[in-house]
């Protein structure tokens, strides 16, 4: 694994991705932030050695590097999900490469179903903790050069970054929640009984991504900050027919508020 990580990292450095301050992974319908990256270097995943290919519509499948305010960021526009059939190592590799490229923190966004009855479509939730119901991406032999066999998950989402985001949201008059994100494999959206179950076991929002990436990042002691955009509700009496298109449509409507928070977060690093 480490050899592949180094090979991919060297390839990207040779293509000009040098000393990024932060990495960002953008969820379904939330890729607009990349248009604000200046002097861009754009590389299709298909041209990057050892990278899997993104198969989902709304996930472009590109690595984008450049200046973002006074910082340099590398963005993954398009991510890899278990429901696409990828294995643990394929999901892990891009995140490890970001770390080896030198990022200091990882920012993530996703589209999610709200199971907290106080949530509305279009709300933004700062993830404070997660319940990972996906296969743990660290199952298998551990490479101690990358991280510990048994990583602690007591602070998967960085408390300092969360407190900063709350201030930014308030300053910008953005309605915000804090909550627990639960990941499930998909690709089906939940049945009403499943939404109810996820609420009972402690979730505020449900989605199909993010937790594997955060686990891989935390294995390397990388601080993480993540936001869910609530695109549908899994609350009894409020459940509507959900499609990938409806998720993309609702995510796009909330995107500018999410982008404001992420932009100011990165600026303040
Ligand atoms: N469930 C799972 N994943 C999702 C949802 C949902 O309701 N909405 C967006 N991604």
The CATH class: Alpha Beta
The main sheet comes to: 5 strands, mixed, barrel
What ligands are attached or bound here?
Answer: hypoxanthine
The overall strand count is: 9
H/E topology pattern: HEEEEHEEHEHEHEH
**CATH 2nd-level architecture:** 3-Layer(aba) Sandwich
Strand order of the largest sheet: 5-8-7-6-9
| Global morphology | globular
Strand content: 15-25%
Q: Classify the helix fraction into a percent range.
A: 25-40%
Number of helices: 6
Structural class: alpha/beta
Structural summary, described in words:
The protein has helices spanning 2-14, 88-101, 159-171, 192-200, 211-219, 244-267; strands spanning 22-26, 38-44, 62-68, 71-77, 105-114, 124-132, 176-183, 205-207, 224-233. By secondary structure, it is of the alpha/beta class. It has one domain (2-267): 3-Layer(aba) Sandwich (Rossmann fold), CATH 3.40.50. Strands 5-8-7-6-9 form a five-stranded mixed barrel, surrounded by four helices. The radius of gyration is 17 Å and the shape is globular.
